[in-house]
């Protein structure tokens, strides 16, 4: 219920980065004494794979139910997956939105839905005590299996999402992010933002939502992660109660391959902002990629380690050009983007872009030093205990491991894999996988030559409306 | 409270161990052995509400400089050492505090203490680092405020809502003040506030209190105390009438902010008042079942998004805030009228006991869920101590809220949510010009080779 009032507190943290990467990175331990979460796994009768870790200390349970029902499944109806997930809590079974809200809030349970390009996630956190537990579980089970998509609720949610989409157009960083994905992925389903466009959201029909739900919200297309104060028997019972109402159905088909970029592109978007957001990217790597560890550790050194990364050093620490800058591989089922980001005063945009791209080129040419690699390994392995300290950490890891079919000993073996990465492997992987001469670059801001807010000085555009 | 008795075991407060060093540094340790990690946080009693006109933003800029070198550490070395020890670290500045933290494996506490003790009294503050960091902070201000219509509205709204209180200043500083900040300003500020007797050290996690105290004595013990003179109170005068402002900012959607002047815990006429205001904010905005979501978003469809916020735990009297974006076909004015109607109803009709019951269950559950975050538990302790309150208030919070009656909620609504205490800001969206139009786009065949 907190009003987000950034102005009341200023953190040096790069929030966007942590939000983007939350739950997607897996670390490992330097301490042989570190107890690994013991993952138990089984399948429900209707085909849902369950991953469970017992956490007896706090009388609560976290559940993440993940369907292969992200925006890559929109089938040209951009925003369909996101709108479907948003409608779950607006009516299900015999309950309307008010009744669902009363049931959950009445026992202090927290339910949320989230849709990215690969996944639709329905998350629940509840106390284990009664009547909270039964009430929360029954509500969750009904929401995922029997949503009603009531027409009046759908229209309200649609209109409010259209308002939210217009608000997103007020943010130069959000505009830039959407443009970068379009530039990197072209005609691939990953190109579209999960939230859709004003035109596409306005056009979605109730029947499409019902059909999308019937096709994708099925047992064999789901992975269930459970962490909490339960034993194995209790977790099995819980899993059956949560997903037992779903038909077995069919797993979603594999997504198409991501084509490489044929050439460099530059997308410049006029925006009446004081800063220009500069993004660069290209297709990166997939989950379980053979180059995963070399690219992951290499990027950690280049721009993935916050204040101490090479990118931060060049752009912020040496030159004061940007408050936040980073690079990241965002692995998905198919290769997700490699991207680099900064935002700087409009008249410094060209300079900052040059530094950013030159930094990438230099890193690809020379690779990391032994000292840089050593420091990165210490950081990644030494920080591992922090990454699995809370139930909310662990449940997110379980969802990723289960959804992307990573081996169950992934966490245990992660440390040795990080430790075994060499300078040569990083240099080799970066040279093979990244092509700085074929980057998609996006710049959103006021052209340095134009006066701020003077629309008359804007560049002549080749397109009308949102690019 | 019968209801709470059933939660006795669930809500059992974990112990916090206290110690004060001879130089005045207060240390609070909260053992939690769930995982082999810890969080170490140093909270200074300094923030933007300690600043005076002309040097706003100095506390936040100083926080940046704390990473830019000491007598024994080169710029950036602090962060590199923490990183090599597998740590997460950062800092944040607010109106009432500046806090620095490291999250580490449980055997690395001494690394954090050694580094924090060094920068508590031995910061370098060199001119080239200052000039560069000032540019970084200006970029931060552009990113957070100038290019964010809602943040910009909130900044101007605060400057009007408060008459005398230093809460009228933005934490990041006014642009004009950032232009004139000097290294001398920072040196003076550092000397005035960065001292063991103006700080609270909080450690939570898999640690033994006695060994934490011993380590703290070793590293912080030798540091000299400073003569700390708390800032002069800048009390708000009695409000004499509603204030309004309309801001013309490039945006796509209107935005409404409303704030009623309210007391903080330390300044309330009666100790239950702030808790009644907190309960009132939950009645309006405690999840999807609360009144704002039920009636304004779903029922009457006046708001696309709307929220209410109040915090009892602030150093100075603040505001009961509403913010919202009107739904399609509505305006900021119709949303304002609907919110005023909500306030009027709270003043005239006591809250239904069932609504109160639902909120109680939510805060009880939230208190249990909190235990999953070590950092947040430590942060609550540090915040309370830093604004001059007792850390035990975090443990009694649920009980205090549960004691609030419908009559008390009605009373605070009548006392504080009155028109003369109100400031309203409306963002009046201006065209974004010809933005969102690709000048050079690969999709238009206008691709450019980048070298």
Automatic annotation (TrEMBL), chain B:
Domain Peptidase M16 C-terminal, first and last residues per copy: 181-362
Protein keywords: Hydrolase, Metal-binding, Metalloprotease, Protease, Zinc
MF (Gene Ontology): metal ion binding; metalloendopeptidase activity
Protein name: Insulinase family protein
Family named by the database record: Belongs to the peptidase M16 family.
Keyword set includes Protease: yes
The keyword Lipoprotein belongs to this UniProt entry's keyword annotation: no
Peptidase M16 N-terminal domain segment(s): 27-170
Protein origin, superkingdom: Bacteria
Cofactor(s), names only, from the UniProt record: Zn(2+)
Protein's GO biological process: proteolysis
């Amino acid at each position: 219920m907190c009003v987000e009032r950034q102005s009341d507190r200023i953190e040096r943290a790069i929030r966007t980065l942590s939000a983007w990467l939350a739950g997607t990175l897996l670390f490992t331990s330097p301490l042989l004494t570190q107890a690994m979460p013991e993952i138990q796994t089984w399948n429900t009768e209707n085909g849902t794979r369950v991953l469970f870790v017992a956490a007896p200390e706090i009388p609560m349970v976290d559940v993440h139910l993940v369907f292969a029902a992200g925006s890559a499944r929109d089938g040209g109806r951009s925003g369909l997956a996101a709108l479907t997930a948003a409608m779950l809590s607006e009516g299900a079974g015999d309950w309307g939105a008010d009744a669902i809200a009363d049931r959950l809030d009445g026992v202090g349970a927290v339910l949320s839905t989230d849709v990215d390009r690969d996944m639709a996630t329905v998350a629940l956190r509840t106390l284990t005590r009664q009547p909270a537990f039964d009430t929360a579980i029954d509500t969750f089970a009904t929401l995922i299996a029997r949503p009603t998509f009531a027409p009046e609720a759908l229209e309200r949610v649609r209109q409010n999402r259209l308002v939210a989409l217009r608000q997103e157009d007020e943010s130069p960083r959000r505009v830039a992010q959407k443009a970068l994905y379009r530039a990197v992925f072209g005609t691939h389903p990953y190109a579209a933002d999960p939230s859709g466009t004003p035109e596409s959201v306005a056009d979605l029909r109730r029947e499409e939502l019902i059909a999308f739900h019937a096709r994708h919200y099925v047992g064999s297309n789901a992975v269930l992660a459970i962490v909490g104060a339960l034993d194995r028997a209790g977790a099995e019972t819980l899993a059956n109660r949560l997903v037992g109402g779903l038909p077995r159905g069919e797993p979603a088909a594999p997504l198409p391959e991501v084509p490489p970029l044929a050439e460099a592109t530059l997308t410049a978007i006029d925006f009446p902002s004081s800063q220009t957001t500069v993004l660069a990217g290209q297709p990166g790597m997939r989950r379980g990629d053979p180059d995963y560890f070399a690219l992951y550790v290499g990027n950690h050194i280049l721009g993935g380690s916050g204040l101490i990364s090479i990118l931060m050093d060049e752009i912020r620490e040496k030159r004061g050009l940007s408050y936040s800058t980073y690079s990241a591989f965002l692995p998905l089922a198919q290769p997700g983007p490699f991207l680099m980001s900064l935002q700087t005063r409009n008249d410094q945009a060209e300079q900052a872009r040059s530094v950013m791209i030159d930094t990438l080129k230099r890193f690809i040419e020379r690779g990391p030093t032994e000292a840089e690699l050593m420091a990165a390994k210490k950081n990644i392995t030494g920080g591992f205990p922090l990454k699995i300290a809370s139930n909310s950490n662990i449940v997110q890891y379980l969802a990723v491991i289960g959804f992307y079919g990573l081996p169950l000993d992934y966490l245990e073996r992660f440390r040795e894999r990080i430790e075994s990465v060499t300078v040569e492997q990083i240099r080799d992987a970066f040279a093979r996988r990244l092509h700085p001469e074929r980057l998609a670059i996006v710049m959103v801001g006021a052209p340095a030559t134009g006066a701020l807010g003077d629309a008359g000085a804007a560049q002549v555009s080749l397109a009308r409306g949102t690019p | 409270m019968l209801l709470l008795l059933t939660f006795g075991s669930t809500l059992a407060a974990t112990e916090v161990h206290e110690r004060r060093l001879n130089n005045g540094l207060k240390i609070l340790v909260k053992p939690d052995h769930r995982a082999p990690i810890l969080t170490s946080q140093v909270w200074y009693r300094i923030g933007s509400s300690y600043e005076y006109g002309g040097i706003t933003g100095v506390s936040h800029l100083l926080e940046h400089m704390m990473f830019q070198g000491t007598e024994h550490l080169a710029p950036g070395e602090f962060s590199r050492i923490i990183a090599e020890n597998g740590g997460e670290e950062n800092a944040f500045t607010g109106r009432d505090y500046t806090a620095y933290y490291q999250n580490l494996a449980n055997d690395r506490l001494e690394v954090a203490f050694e580094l924090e003790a060094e920068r508590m009294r031995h910061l370098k503050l060199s001119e080239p680092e200052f000039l560069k960091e000032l540019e970084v902070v200006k970029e931060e201000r552009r990113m957070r405020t100038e290019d964010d219509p809602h943040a910009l509205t909130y900044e101007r709204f605060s400057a009007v809502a408060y008459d005398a209180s230093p809460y009228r200043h933005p934490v990041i500083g006014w642009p004009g003040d950032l232009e004139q900040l000097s290294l001398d300003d920072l040196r003076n500020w550092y000397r005035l506030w960065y001292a063991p007797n103006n700080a609270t050290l909080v450690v939570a996690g898999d640690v033994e209190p006695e060994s934490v105290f011993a380590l703290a004595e070793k590293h912080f013990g030798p540091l000299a105390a400073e003569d700390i003179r708390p800032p002069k109170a800048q009390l708000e005068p009695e409000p004499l009438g509603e204030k309004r402002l309309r801001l013309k900012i490039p945006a796509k959607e209107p935005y409404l902010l409303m704030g009623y002047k309210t007391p903080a815990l330390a300044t309330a006429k009666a100790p239950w008042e702030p808790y009644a205001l907190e309960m009132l904010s939950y009645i309006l905005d405690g999840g999807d079942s609360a009144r704002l979501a039920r009636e304004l978003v779903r029922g009457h469809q006046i708001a696309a998004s709307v929220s209410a916020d109040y915090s009892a735990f602030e150093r100075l009297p603040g505001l009961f805030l509403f913010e919202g974006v009107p739904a399609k076909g509505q305006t900021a004015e119709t949303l304002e009228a609907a919110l005023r109607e909500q306030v009027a109803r709270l003043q005239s009709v006591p809250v239904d006991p069932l609504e109160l019951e639902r909120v109680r269950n939510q805060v009880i559950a939230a208190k249990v869920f909190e235990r999953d975050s070590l950092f947040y538990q430590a942060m609550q302790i540090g915040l309370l101590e830093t604004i001059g309150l007792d850390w035990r208030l975090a443990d009694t919070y649920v009980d205090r809220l549960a004691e609030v009656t419908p009559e008390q909620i009605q009373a605070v609504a009548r006392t504080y949510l009155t028109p003369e205490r109100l400031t309203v800001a409306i963002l009046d969206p201006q065209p974004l010009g010809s933005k969102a139009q690709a000048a050079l786009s690969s999709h238009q065949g206008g691709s450019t080779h980048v070298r």
